[in-house]
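B., you asked whether I could sanity-check this one before it goes into the benchmark set. Here's the sequence:
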Amino acid sequence: MKKTGLVAATTVMLALWATAVAAHHSAQQFDFGRSVAIAGVVKRFQSINPHMRLVIAVTDAKGTRDITFEGHSTNNMYRAGYRDGMIKVGDKITVYVAPLRDGSDGGYVTAASTADGRRFGPQSRAEQEAEREKAEGRKEHRGRGGRLAVSLV
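And here's what the prediction gave me:
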């Protein structure tokens, strides 16, 4: 009887562990080797764990649409400069994202800046190059591996 109870308890524990592991997804779908700047108006923002959720309305060459993003946990965002109330529905912001590998809209927010100049997150390589180009009067640059840096702003 003890052996059967131990096997049943072990099976239940393994099933619960497998469910918890499967609940957290991989970041494989994002291309962290690239950074893309996307400007828009905040439609929804949730600073929650395990990941921040953000929806912005974007108007560009493809038209106007809502794009959904995810990002770091609240703790990681706070360490990177985010403060409660910094992003509100209706705000104009620019997000810097690791885009989705399949090319569809969306991505993983690594940094953001508000219309009044506040920002959180590290400055991406693309942002550093853009600032350098602006200071030098250049308009485009080649990133690592000779790739042209892309901005959808």
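One thing to flag: The two ends are 67 Å apart (CA to CA). Otherwise nothing jumped out at me.
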